[in-house]
């Protein structure tokens, strides 16, 4: 697990732990929509924190990256010179939390001169129309 | 689905991204600075008019009034108040805010 | 209907905080319930009791507190976002509590609708 991302019992207590008994069986389809580039604002980092917490709730979680959000997944991010925390390795940890549905909009990639090979984790690249269909089937959509 | 857009199209491309991904039969609500998109002469007005063919488009009247633009609202866009906003959210299974 | 609300922006900086409050008030007036208002990113600044706007302008912090007092609305500030921004128990306005991101996810699960107000 990347440094700084610990979800120990203490963190679970701090997260406002979900009452599993009370909510047994409640599974919703959550889609987290990422449209902003990393590092220029806090949204990508704090958005990812929500995604990681959601893993504790056994919901059907997927992530969508479109517009500048696709930049969040670009390989080789190095924040040493801007002296901020490089949180991008946490995307590689998602699989360990059973969050494996990462969708990237094809049009957004192409408009930014990127390809699937530019990205640091396995994703499913979808045309806007297919991503739209997926989005329309969600129970909860949270954008950051 | 109810799509909520709050940024002016003159400032951000959010509205256009929303229109790219909204599906026929969905609803679009413009609030805050996004209400400018639904005003005559705005560069996005044609896109909004086109959207009204497949989406139900609404604009939040209090935000138009705040900006002195209520009289400029284009046809085909329904003006609603906050009660209408609540009813829209209640009436659609999912609300997506485009941020 | 039971609404969950997520407020991602600070008071006064963006209209989002106002939009969220006005939505909550309209929802309550219409007979709905607010499951929880969760404050994230700069939204946590809405809980700062030291806020001192001009007398002739709305007091964003106080009116959230009043909503909690009058209607039992649960106002939750994310602990991680709050710590980053120096929002701590000692400056928390009435009616707010600090808790974890789990409270947001729980609200999204429990509530009939989740509405996000942000940037």
Which descriptors would you attach to this protein?
heterotrimer, A: 144 residues, alpha/beta, Hypothetical Protein Ychn, Chain: A, five-stranded parallel sheet, 5 helices, 25% helix, disordered N terminus, B: 99 residues, 4 helices, globular
Please provide a written account of the structure.
The complex is a heterotrimer of chains A (144), B (99) and C (119). Chain A contains 5 helices and 5 strands, in the order αβαβαβαβαβ. Chain A is of the alpha/beta class and 144 residues long. Chain A has a 5-stranded parallel sheet with strand order 4-3-2-1-5. In chain B, strands 4-3-2-1-5 form a 5-stranded parallel sheet. Chain B has a single domain, classed as Hypothetical Protein Ychn, Chain: A, CATH 3.40.1260. Chain C is α/β, with parallel strands linked by helices and 119 residues long. In chain C, strands 4-3-2-1-5 form a 5-stranded parallel sheet, with helices on both faces. Chains in contact: A-B, A-C, B-C. Chains A and C meet through α1, α2 and β5 of A and α3 and α4 of C.
Determine the oligomeric state from the structure: heterotrimer
CATH fold field value of chain B: Hypothetical Protein Ychn, Chain: A
Percent in helix of chain C: 25-40%
Specify the structural class of chain B.
Answer: alpha/beta
Structural topology:
The complex is a heterotrimer of chains A (144), B (99) and C (119).
Chain A (H helix, E strand, L loop, with lengths): L8 H6 L14 E6 L8 H12 L5 E6 L24 H4 L7 E5 H5 L13 E3 L1 H9 L3 E4 L1
Chain B lengths: L1 E4 L8 H8 L5 E4 L14 H7 L4 E5 H6 L11 E3 L1 H10 L3 E4 L1
Parallel strand pairs in B: 1-2, 1-5, 2-3, 3-4
Chain C lengths: L1 E6 L8 H14 L3 E7 L20 H12 L3 E4 H6 L11 E4 L2 H9 L2 E5 L2
Parallel strand pairs in C: 1-2, 1-5, 2-3, 3-4
Helix pairs in contact in C: 1-2
Summarize the structure.
Chain B is α/β, with parallel strands linked by helices and about 100 residues long.
């Amino acid at each position: 697990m990347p440094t700084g991302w610990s979800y120990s019992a203490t963190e679970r207590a701090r997260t406002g732990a979900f009452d599993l008994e009370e909510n047994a069986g409640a599974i919703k389809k959550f889609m987290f929509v990422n449209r902003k580039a990393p590092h220029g604002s806090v949204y990508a980092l704090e958005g990812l924190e929500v995604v990681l917490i959601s893993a504790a709730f056994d919901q059907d979680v997927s992530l969508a990256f479109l517009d500048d959000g696709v930049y969040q997944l670009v390989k080789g991010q190095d924040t040493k010179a801007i002296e901020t925390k490089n949180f991008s390795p946490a995307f590689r940890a998602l699989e360990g939390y059973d969050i494996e549905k990462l969708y990237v909009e094809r049009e957004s990639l192409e408009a930014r001169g990127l390809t699937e090979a530019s990205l640091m984790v396995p994703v499913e690249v979808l045309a806007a129309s297919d991503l739209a269909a997926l989005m329309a089937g969600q129970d909860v959509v949270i954008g950051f | 689905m109810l799509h909520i857009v709050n940024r002016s199209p003159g400032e951000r491309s959010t509205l256009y991204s929303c229109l790219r991904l909204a599906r026929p039969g969905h609803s679009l609500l413009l609030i805050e600075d996004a209400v400018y998109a639904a005003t005559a002469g705005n560069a996005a007005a044609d896109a909004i008019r086109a959207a009204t063919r497949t989406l139900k488009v609404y604009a939040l009247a209090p935000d138009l009034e705040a900006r002195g633009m209520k009289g400029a609202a284009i046809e085909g866009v329904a003006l609603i108040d906050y009660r209408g906003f609540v009813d829209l959210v209640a009436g659609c299974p999912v609300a997506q805010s485009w941020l | 209907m039971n609404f969950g609300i997520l407020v991602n922006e600070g008071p006064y900086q963006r209209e989002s905080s106002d939009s969220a409050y006005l939505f909550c008030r309209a929802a309550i007036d219409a007979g709905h319930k607010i499951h929880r208002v969760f404050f994230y990113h700069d939204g946590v600044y809405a809980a700062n009791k030291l806020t001192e706007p001009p007398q002739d302008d709305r007091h964003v912090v106080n009116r959230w507190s009043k909503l909690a007092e009058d209607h039992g609305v649960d106002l939750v500030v994310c602990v991680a976002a709050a710590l980053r921004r120096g929002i701590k128990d000692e400056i928390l306005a009435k009616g707010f509590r600090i808790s974890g991101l789990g409270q947001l996810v729980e609200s999204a699960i429990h509530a009939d609708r989740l509405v996000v107000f942000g940037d």
